[in-house]
Structures are given as structure tokens and as C-alpha cells.
């Protein structure tokens, strides 16, 4: 467990560099056709997940959508297991069966990687429900894009989280676009954070390009949730430098807009802050960057050398065991007695 104060900022900068270099290399490997399926890069948004992870304990839960490589890496899934997953190899974090959009790491409490927009938000509420039901003091961080906030599942989830006062932080990574559609064209609200108000969930806007601001805001909210469970909503204003996925040239935005955000780069910002304060030299930064690149290159080698998952395991983790065995006659289950579900604690008390 890492209390917030103990998370070293240089270590977190090094994590951001690992994420950035991992994704650049993934992009290159995708173009070399080593990676199949879809692939969505997080480049530009690193401060959001890094700042949020820096503010929680290792036993808190996290869950996200399909732009998920960074979330696994930030949680502690190895670059080897992440790259192998992209390559569809058995050594991948989802045994090579999930691919880019379905990273999963139970050991690190990273519960996906989900491809259907907003479909994971009710799952996040389920995780938070489990925390409260068991009387634990964990918190669930649920990441999603600006495109998710107009989905029905999002509204159902916020409603339940508010009704049950569940320990969850809804983290909207507002990168201004859902595929090629600008948030201004898809959302009736002036600002996304206003969605939370409708459910009586406290919300705030955070500069998602600033690691320190993200970390401090998430820490503040999580601290208050641990004292007394409740949902919270943070709208992170951020930007993705690349297209929506590998095949998107992103012609729906101007070069000037992209340049404006690149100048506000989260890695450059934290580096400058640490350098100004005498906590980091240029040589140290170069060394961190070199190490990140080496780790990622080693991960590519690991992925290349790893075996494919055997074909007969294809359905093993897709359906409950036996669900695909349609030809086999099924035993008739004896009628089960109705079991009483333990009552949920009153919604008004923690
Ligand atoms: C229910 C559903 N509808 C449509 C899609 C196709 N789709 C994939 S990504 C995406 C945009 C989501 O954008 P956003 O939530 O802002 O996330 P970002 O890509 O910006 O991280 C859409 C519409 C989908 N995956 N699921
Ligand atoms: Mg978006």
C-alpha cells in the first residue's frame, strides 16, 4: 500500500515515460502487422491515469474502457504482459485472448479493458457495491471517455451509485472527441461535469494535462470517500495526440489545435516542475527515458518469443466453463431453494 505522500514524483514521471514509449512502440509494431484487431493509443492523456493511480492504494479497484494500455501499466502490469497481450500471445495479461481493448489483471485489481462504450460503468458500480457490502474502505476508480456520458448505462450507473452512496470516483477523460465527433456536437451540456449534478453527485473539473492537479484532486476526493462512502465525479480535461484508433488520420481537427495541446504536454510539464525545484537533472531525465525505451524493447522481444495460445483454449475464458459444449446432454439441475439475500445497509448510513 502506498499512501499518497510516499509516491515519488520522479517515479511517476518515469511511469509516464514508460506509458508513452510503450505506446509509440505499439504503434510501430501495429504498422508492422505484429498486432491484430483494434488499437487505441493514450498518448497525450498520461497525466490522468498516472495522477489518479498516484492517489490511491494498490488494493483499490480500477476499471476503464478500451483505451486501456496505460491503465494496466500504471497499475503495475508488466510491459512484457501488456505487449504480449497486444501480440495475442499466451503470456499476455489476458492470456492473449483479449487483445488491445481487453487488458485485465486481477492481481493488480485492474478489471478491464472494455470495448463497448459505457458498458463497464455499471460493472464499476458493482465493484463499488461489493466494497460497501463487505464493509471495506477501498474505492473504485471508473475511467471512461466523453463519448460515454450520453449512453443509458452511464445514467443507470450514476443513479444507483448515488442512491446507494457507493465508494466510486467517476473519472471522465474528456479528450474532446468520441471517434471523430466533437463533444460540442454530441452533448447538450455546456460542461460534462454538470451531468453529475443531476444525480446529486459532487463534481469538479480538473486540468488533465497536469499530473499534480490530477493527483491532488483524486487524493482529496478519495480521502473523503474513505471517511464516508459516496460517489464523486471528476471531469479531466485532456487531449489525445493520435487519431481515435490506428486507422484514423484525425482530419476532423486542425494542426493548430493539436500543436496547442502538444505544447502543454503532461510529461514536459512535470519534468519542468521537477527541474525547476531542483529534483531532477537533464541527465537523470535522459536516463529515465533510456530505461523506459529499453523496457519496452525487451517487452517486444518477450512478446515475439512467446507462444500463441492453443486453439482449443479459444472459448475457455469467453463463456462459463461448459457453456459451449452444446452437443453434450445437460444434467437436469434440481430446483434450487430460494436463498435470502442479506439486506443491504441503509442507504442513508455509511
Ligand atoms: C455502445 C457502443 N457504441 C458505439 C461504439 C463505437 N465506438 C467505439 S469508440 C467510440 C467513441 C467513444 O469515445 P469516448 O468515450 O470519448 O472515448 P475516447 O475514444 O475518446 O477515449 C465509439 C462510438 C462502441 N464501441 N460501443
Ligand atoms: Mg473522447
| Class derived from helix and strand content | alpha/beta
- Identify the CATH class of the domain at 4-14 and 43-77 and 106-277: Alpha Beta
> Which series of helices and strands comes N to C?
HHEHHHEHEEEHHEHEHHH
Q: How many helical stretches?
A: 12
Q: How far from one another are the termini? A: 23 Å
Radius of gyration: 21 Å
Beta fraction of the residues? 5-15%
Proper CATH architecture of the domain at 4-14 and 43-77 and 106-277: 3-Layer(aba) Sandwich
Strands in their spatial order, largest beta sheet:
1-2-3-7-6
Chemical compounds bound to the protein: thiamine diphosphate, magnesium ion
Arithmetic mean pLDDT: 92
**Helical fraction:** 40-55%
Strand element count: 7
Described by strand count, sense and barrel closure, the largest sheet is: 5 strands, parallel
- Indicate the low-confidence ranges by residue numbers: 337-350
Model description:
The chain has 350 residues and is an alpha/beta fold. It has helices spanning 9-31, 46-54, 69-75, 79-86, 120-133, 152-163, 183-186, 194-197, 211-227, 255-262, 266-276, 282-305; strands at 61-63, 140-145, 168-174, 177-178, 181-182, 203-207, 231-237. The chain has a domain at 4-14 and 43-77 and 106-277: Thiamin diphosphate (ThDP)-binding fold, Pyr/PP domains (Rossmann fold), CATH 3.40.50.970. Helix 9 links the parallel strand 6 and strand 7 (231-237). It has a 5-stranded parallel β-sheet, with helices on both faces. The chain binds thiamine diphosphate and magnesium ion. Residues 145-147, 175, 177-178 line the site of magnesium ion.
